[in-house]
Amino acid sequence: xxxxxxxxxxxxxxxxxxxxxxxxxxxxxxxxxxxxxxxxxxxxxxxxxxxxxxxxxxxxxxxxxxxxxxxxxxxxxxxxxxxxxxxxxxxxxxxxxxxxxxxxxxxxxxxxxxxxxxxxxxxxxxxxxxxxxxxxxxxxxxxxxxxxxxxxxxxxxxxxxxxxxxxxxxxxxxxxxxxxxxxxxxxxxxxxxxxxxxxxxxxxxxxxxxxxxxxxxxxxxxxxxxxxxxxxxxxxxxxxxxxxxxxxxxxxxxxxxxxxxxxxxxxxxxxxxxxxxxxxxxxxxxxxxxxxxxxxxxxxxxxxxxxxxxxxxxxxxxxxxxxxxxxxxxxxxxxxxxxxxxxxxxxxxxxxxxxxxxxxxxxxxxxxxxxxxxxxxxxxxxxxxxxxxxxxxxxxxxxxxxxxxxxxxxxxxxxxxxxxxxxxxxxxxxxxxxxxxxxxxxxxxxxxxxxxxxxxxxxxxxxxxxxxxxxxxxxxxxxxxxxxxxxxxxxxxxxxxxxxxxxxxxxxxxxxxxxxx
Length: 517
Hints:
Blueprint: E1 4-5, H1 8-12, E2 20-23, H2 34-47, E3 53-57, E4 78-83, H3 90-97, E5 102-105, H4 108-119, E6 125-127, E7 153-158, E8 161-166, E9 173-177, E10 180-181, E11 187-188, H5 198-207, E12 211-216, E13 218-219, E14 229-231, E15 238-241, H6 275-285, E16 293-296, H7 303-310, E17 318-319, E18 325-326, E19 329-330, E20 339-340, E21 344-345, H8 348-356, E22 362-366, E23 369-371, E24 376-377, E25 380-381, E26 384-385, H9 391-395, E27 400-404, E28 408-409, E29 413-417, E30 420-425, E31 429-430, E32 432-433, H10 443-448, E33 452-456, E34 460-465, E35 468-474, H11 480-484, E36 498-499, H12 510-516
Helix pairs in contact: 4-5, 4-8, 6-7
């Protein structure tokens, strides 16, 4: 074997002070080298080394408590973090908010592709992804707190067109995971729900003169079928075998997360207990057409899949997520990004390339804030660094973006009434504001490029126009002035306001409501 077999503690000792560490993982423990991260954390807590690390990760990693990126979230252990999605690590978010680290956020696909470009020793990533968002140097230039001062992205004009150039990384250590290693050192991923950007992390380290450490569950004596190798031996320096390695935080080795499976049964009730989520998901699902390639985001927008299944329409579309999976039954909650019985699996880098090529017809995404210009924020608010995940890479290239969220937050309650709604208790926090705190979706750029965007709430629907947001639908039973306009800090365009479809306000299962209460 070209690679050297090491214990997890010996491998952890290879990470030097000041190193840049590239980590491939996703929330829920997907592809996460949990034991290796734990060994690095134990070493720091015992010896105060390694210190001053720069951690790079494209997707969220952790359990909102102690695992994943949380293992690096100790004062002094990390000097800098460049992350695509931060919410799985509240401890790292606190370090950023308290200015104890230099915090940078980039679109997840940008980080994935930048790792690839860095490994190939190219002069960074030139792309239109992120223009007129927080990533643009005319706004924040990817800086997520005051301690982040470096210029990591610049504006270019090539042949009369604007682009962003993200500067390359110098990666010292790639920490990645697979399922098995053969005698040559080839890495397979047969039991992994996705392969993410593990290959790109390895390429970045190799091109930088760094090292690649791979954690696997087992060692095989027979050579791996070359079609099953996702990290070739030539890219691997050290291997750590961890027999107790789990597929995810919740599963030991669930074959449904990687084996083909018959189509999930349709006509199954969505099981809503929250009328707000029910209305938003039902109305958003009306934007999905037969034959569409559909992307679903985390949270409320993920409920659109349940509505399509309930309506017997899920088989009519192709699901595609940034983790590199197609179709199947999408997992929700802590296993979001995984699918039961996917039809295809590619790397995140390939998937983001496909998204940029215009693969997605419709995406349904979350919406923390929206403003009069049609901008949407999901990346930073309330003094917290959240990160966009794949939001920018997806919404900037989808033909239609449907942003899903409650009209107001914190305490909002509505009642469904015969094809309409009534506000029982108003939310305390405005989500539609004059100007968003952070621009994650640029309404201006979308309008200029002729892309369609809808903003779906439980009481109204807005549509993006070249002149800003237009109010196009209002829930039957609500008062336009009292329930909508009185809560907006600007006057929306109102040319053709019609009722929201009554089907969105169908009653939800009273048995489930009783169980919830």
